[in-house]
Specification:
The chain is an alpha+beta fold. It has one domain. 11% of the residues lie in helices and 24% in strands. The strands form two sheets. A four-stranded antiparallel beta sheet has the order 3-4-5-6, covered by helices on one side. It has a two-stranded antiparallel sheet with strand order 1-2. It binds zinc ion (ZN) (2 copies).
């Protein structure tokens, strides 16, 4: 994906809007990242969404995991202000405990009684 529209260098950092951690803009694999590897929070900025209204700068909370056909995991973020949803690739050093907790949450909290499966 061409990144010619930005001027971010490999050594740039940003501060996590949630926990204050100083985060390298590029992950260990050299891919650009937009969320904190510790708490997985992100920030709603224009270049995180293609063609979206966005750019509100508010905190984006990680709410779910999506798995692509390729097997790659994506984090689904929701903006605290405009409620817009975005998906961002998981990095190698992202908090694996938080990722797993989000991945199993739908199984741990099904919106219907699990006893229903007993009748199948
Ligand atoms: Zn953080
Ligand atoms: Zn927003």
């Amino acid at each position: 994906m061409p990144q010619s529209h930005n001027s971010i260098s490999k050594t740039d950092t940003f501060s996590c809007i949630q926990c204050g951690l100083t985060v390298m803009t590029y992950d260990p694999d050299g891919d650009r990242r937009n969320h904190c590897p510790s708490c997985l929070h992100s920030r709603h900025l224009f270049d995180q969404v293609e063609g979206g209204p966005s750019d509100c700068g508010m905190r984006m909370a990680p709410i779910s995991i999506a798995v692509l056909r390729s097997g790659d995991w994506m984090i689904i973020h929701r903006c605290a202000q405009c409620l817009e949803l975005t998906s961002n690739p998981v990095s190698r050093d992202d908090n694996q405990l938080l990722l797993m907790r989000m991945a199993v949450r739908p199984l741990a909290q099904p919106p219907f009684p699990l006893e229903a499966f007993g009748d199948l």
